[in-house]
Amino acid sequence: MANAWLRLWHDMPNDPKWRTIARVSGQPIATVMAVYIHLLVSASRNVTTCHGVSLRGHIDVTTEDLASALDVTEEVIDSILQAMQGRVLDGDLITGWEKRQVLKEDNGNVSQTAKSPAERKRAQREREKLRNRMRGVTTCHDESRQIKIQIKN
Predict the structure, then answer these.
(1) Which pLDDT score is estimated for 85?
(2) Which helix H or strand E contains 17, and what residues bound it?
(3) What pLDDT is stored for residue 33 in this prediction?
(4) For residues 33 and 18, is the Cβ–Cβ distance under 8 A?
(5) Which residues of 68-82 are buried (b: 16+ CB within 10 A; e: fewer)?
(6) Which domains does the chain carry?
(7) Consecutive 10-residue averages of pLDDT for the chain (153 residues)
(8) How far apart are CA 150 and CA 126, in angstroms?
(9) With contact defined as beta carbons under 8 Å apart, do 7 and 100 qualify?
């Protein structure tokens, strides 16, 4: 999955829940947010299949891996993960994943069924091909576009 992406929301850095999690865990906000970013990446990479449907949003990173990545102790990670439960985590599931990590985006319209970049490019080529075929054809409004309007003062 080369160049796979995940999304952050605009208010993520200033979301008050990080201050709450930091206070409850006794850890700095920067460490809390770093842990959460690692969890997002883990959840994005971890694809589970249920009834033939591929899903993301479940974390499968260990506290040891997180502690090593962030150069902190496993106790620090455990305290943060416990404080995240019920706030941004539900067990090993990141809450709000489906809402924030949509599958595709189409002209700014985010949805689960929007066109992929390849589908959008294919549609653009079809429109251009049609436009090229219609070059010599007069459309219904072409005549009216040649009329000059005079405005009287």
Answers:
(1) 98
(2) helix 16-25
(3) 97
(4) yes
(5) eebebeeebbebbbe
(6) 12-101 (1.10.10), 105-145 (no CATH)
(7) 73 94 98 97 82 77 97 98 97 87 56 68 87 73 66 72
(8) 39
(9) yes
CB contact set of 128 (below 8 Å; sequence gap of 6+): none
- Amino acid at site 30: A
Q: Which residues pair with 101 in a beta bridge?
A: none
* Unique residue bearing structure tokens 């962030």: 70
User: pTM for the full model?
Assistant: 0.66
Whole-number pLDDT of residue 141: 63
The dihedral sign for the CA sequence 74, 75, 77, 82: positive
For residue 141, the tally of other CB atoms under 10 A from its CB is 7
Residue count of the chain, please give it: 153
CB 63 within 8 A of CB 114: no
